[in-house]
Specification:
It comes from Vibrio rhizosphaerae. With about 220 residues, the chain is of the alpha+beta class. The protein is about 55% helix and about 15% strand.
């Protein structure tokens, strides 16, 4: 058995983060069987849109303005993302009225969930809620429902969402990663020294992790 630490910076409204993690999950599943791998995943916040107001903005308009895209370019980009998602079992649902939201509250929950080792189930549930179910991701009750469905306590989660200390912790953590040179997500740090930026292909992830595993000691 070999333990492998992977730190992931992501935002739940980033489709490339969803694709990147799902590819990683596929590779880890293969390696867990082939090499008795025990992955240890730690999620870290990276807000793409920290100044978005409550209720968010219409996604299509937001993308075209922020990235100076035409409607056609944005449509083609979403078609590409949808196709890549389908390859790994993600059913992206981009609709005309889909909105993009401030994710600070979600990151507060994710940071707190590390204490009970529930980060990954919660992160996956947040991805699904946004990209496949069209949930309002800055709504407190929506976030609480998602968290409770993953076995977390509603009262504890509500305290996390209303505690300004957790909001400050998210901001401070993001600042530290920015100062460390992380400018975009997804970003994965393998064993605290190998940085993989972007949604890397499955074959590349497999080769990178497989080669690294050969250098790690086995657990006894």
């Amino acid at each position: 058995m070999k333990k492998l630490r992977i730190d992931i910076l992501s935002d739940l409204v980033c489709p490339w983060c969803f694709i990147g993690y799902t590819r990683l999950e596929k590779v880890l599943g293969q390696l867990s069987v082939d090499k008795q791998l025990q992955p240890e995943i730690h999620w870290h916040p990276f807000e793409l849109n920290p100044t978005l107001p409550a209720g968010g903005e219409v996604l299509n308009q937001y993308l075209q303005t922020k990235y100076q895209m035409t409607a056609k370019q944005r449509q083609l980009n979403q078609q590409k993302i949808t196709a890549l998602g389908n390859e790994v079992g993600i059913d992206f649902q981009f609709t005309a009225d889909m909105r993009i939201y401030n994710t600070r509250k979600a990151h507060q929950l994710l940071m707190w969930a590390a204490r009970s080792q529930q980060q990954t189930p919660l992160q996956k549930a947040l991805f699904l809620a946004y990209f496949q179910e069209g949930k309002v991701m800055d709504d407190t009750d929506t976030l609480l429902d998602i968290a409770v469905a993953q076995g977390l306590d509603r009262r504890d989660c509500r305290q996390v969402l209303t505690d300004p200390g957790w909001s400050s912790a998210v901001v401070q953590t993001e600042k530290q990663w920015l100062e460390a040179g992380i400018q975009a997500v997804p970003a994965m740090i393998i064993e605290q020294h190998i940085l993989l930026c972007g949604a890397r292909p499955v074959t590349e992830l497999h080769d990178t992790l497989d080669g690294l595993l050969d250098t790690l000691p086995s657990l006894h």
